[in-house]
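HOLO CASE FILE
Compound: pantoate
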Amino acid sequence: VKILGLPGEMRAAADKARLEGLRIGLVPTMGFLHEGHLSLVRKARTLSDFLVVSVFVNPVQFGPGEDLDSYPVDAQRDEELCERQGVDIIFSPGRDRMYAENHSVCVDEEELSSGLCGAHRPGHFRGVLTVVAKLFNIVQPHVAVFGQKDAQQVRVVQRMVRDLDMSVEIVVVPTVREPDGVAMSSRNAYLSGEERRRARRVYEALCLAEKLCRDGNRDTALIKGEMTGLLAEGSPPIEIEYVETVDYETLKPVDRVERPTLVAVAARIGRARLIDNIVLGG
Ligand code: PAF
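Model generated. Tokens follow.
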């Protein structure tokens, strides 16, 4: 695997591959790769001849007081894992290489990003879309692969591609879970043993929603109430940021599960902010 740190070098390598008729795949990441990322990389590998994994902890998607400065990093391990998966290029630009000092153009999505994480992390999706648009412009991939764990991110990126006529296919890969159900996340590294055990309850709450729905309960107030009850059990209770049921297309809250419905949770356990989701109905 070749490591490139400059947008210009990355663009030149991708241009060359494109001229050779290769199909270019991109997996955007913030590094500290885990099995969830590797499932994206494997999928992208099957869909492309020239595979780029970007590793960039994007400062503009973090708010004040968030974990930008403590975000876990392990460049050597990332390199080994990418090597093993047959990645062609790791694009890991320095912060000052990605953004000009007087950078002043951003991408804003004004509908899908207003609720869920967008409501709790002002400016987050503007930061995500801006960096994803920049990565798409530098690499100009034929296909880019994202994880369903960040369901709102997926929907917002899909909307950007549609509304700005970007010529990249977005492929979504299901969430990869630990054997006890906890969704893989780089931020799980923040959890102590006891906190890690408590984190299971997030997945249990999603399973409860699925069971209630399977048993014929379509009322989302009831589903959210049961989920919140489960999350609040035990001490110390999990600090819930939100438990939401939204239409999968519009991401607007729904009263009943009648069409595909995203059930999404954001919770704080210790210093980790964890998100997870499932899709019900439809
Ligand atoms: O999902 C992530 O890791 C990030 O939000 C992304 C897509 C790499 C943009 O920085």
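CASE NOTES: The pocket of pantoate is lined by residues 28-30, 58, 61, 128, 131-132, 150, 153 (CB under 6 Å). The radius of gyration is 19 Å.
CLOSED: yes
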